[in-house]
Fold this protein.
Amino acid sequence: MSVAPHEAVSAAIAAARKGGRTALVGFLTAGFPRRERFRDDLAAVAAAADVVEVGVPFSDPMADGTTIQRASFAALANGVTLPWILGEVAAVTATGGAPILLMSYLNPLLAYGLERLPRAAAAAGIAGFIVPDLPFEERAELKAALDREGLALVQMVTPVTPRERLERLCADARGFVYAVTMTGTTGKAAAVPDDVLAYMDRVRAAARVPVCAGFGIRSREQVDRFAGHVDGVVVGSALVEVLERGEDPRAFLASLR
Amino acid sequence: MTSASGAAATAAASVPDRRGRFGPFGGRYVPETLVAALDRLQAGIDRYLASEDFQAEFRSELATWVGRPTALTHALTLSRRWGADVWLKREDLAHTGAHKINNAIGQTLLAKRLGAKRIIAETGAGQHGVASAAAAARVGLPCTVYMGAVDVERQAPNVGRMKLLGATVVPVTSGDATLRVAIDEALRDWVADPEGTYYSIGSAVGPHPYPYLVRELQSVIGREARAQMLERTGALPDAAFACVGGGSNAIGLFHPFLEDAGVRLVGIEAGGRGQGLGDNAASLTYGTPGVLQGSYTLILQDEHGQVRETHSVSAGLDYSGVGPEHAYLLRTGRVAYEAASDAEALDALVECARYEGILPAIETAHAFAGARRYAASHPGARILIGCSGRGDKDMPILQRTVLEGLA
Ligand SMILES: Cc1ncc(COP(=O)(O)O)c(C=O)c1O
């Protein structure tokens, strides 16, 4: 293996920066709004974004606001499961496109089995994981498993993460550091006051991999505000809503550039 | 006492470890936003919980506002009917009508010391909601209670009580609209304001340090009951029974007895209408290990790790998970867990009301059903039942079920 999957994630973000852009990380919930359209939706997002996050639906999405909750429950009702997602993602990664991460709460991963998960994910062309309910102190087992395949376990930090902890969390982050823009769940439009930019600058100073801001990013104005303070932005609920309305995700992502 | 069970009992008394582990169970599975808040809570517990000043205020509130110690009642007619010697620890006599108040006032006093600006809570049966609303009013903090929309309807009397006590009640309509989604929604509220808001969780569940904190605050039940049994009967009970939803009244009753290896401890879960996934809320009896709402414990889930909806006639037991210490006590074998069905619980409720003049909560009635089963195979046994709460709140359901039959 020449480039480890986690390095491919960092590199995709760095490439956008080299091109003078803030990288776009696009999030979509697997199998929402329609299970049979997921491959096409994923391919479209993977063609337009620099990195893709595929949301594994979960029955108790405690870090998510109303949009991703709705998408998760609908996807579960559509019969979406992790094994199905791995198969769909594999079909899309086979043809290239942006690196793909899975965003999943811990329990579906435990049910799949931490022993066999990294191999199966790597085989599907997945570059890493984001696990919103797995704090640094509890991550050792999953981290060790993913390391074996060179997969990223993306670390989140927040505005209320104490300074010394923030440095520890950033120090050995892989892929990118996910800097949550605010205290709150996903979806609500985030204001971008100066102190949020100062916090992003602090994260960037501590991190050795790119930093992406996420939660509540919906508009070109927000992306412009963050420019120069982060390497990329994560667009989640807004993109899910675009897909839900049946609009073209490529056009929406292009409008943020 | 065999040496094996003695060792299990001693080990059980010394958990959790610093990371909140009860053997493999417990831990802290939360978004990063809440980690600092949980660290502050832990620091607050270390600083205040054992302090003379906190304990004095807590004891004084328990004695003069909650009405502790609660009575130990000799259930004379049940004893005769069951061929056993039956004693009831009367948490139904505590202020607001259930054991929940012990925890609610304790956490609210702690929240005040931590500088919290508001209290949030979830509730199933409404008992923790009422207790939290009352405690917040007493201490002078605003309170918001999240409650599944189904529970708002089936526990309507408690919704009105919460409002009178000054709380804001927020119905939650997602999922099966019961306790689990109420906890999800409370967690989301807390994530939005981890520094100003104190989340007063209502059972021995959730991320570390909550299962420990709730156990410590509820253990007053077992300490009192143990001393009262010794004083009244000169001996410890042969067996003690408590219902298990999240497990707070059960751990409160059991914990002070863990090292008494001769006392059989039995938790009774909601067996609902059967053994199938979705037909009950018996996570210890039918569940598998997984992470739900901050803790690694036994949960009712499908093969893909999706947490399943539950069924129980009792709102307070209608939950897909259980406190991690119970998962641990099941694994060590120190506590046995069984399920009692909706029908058994309602039957036991009617019997207790009719023959002891006590209308227990439907949650509580599950413990009576389990105890009655035990008595049938252990004639003459001395049995302690945790009478966790009163049944006034259940009148809408009782009207639709047993009262229909009596009409
Ligand atoms: C009277 C009563 N008993 C028991 C319970 C179950 O909770 P736990 O298992 O935490 O004691 C409830 C919960 O609402 C309750 O109201």
Remarks:
- Chain A has a mean pLDDT of 96.
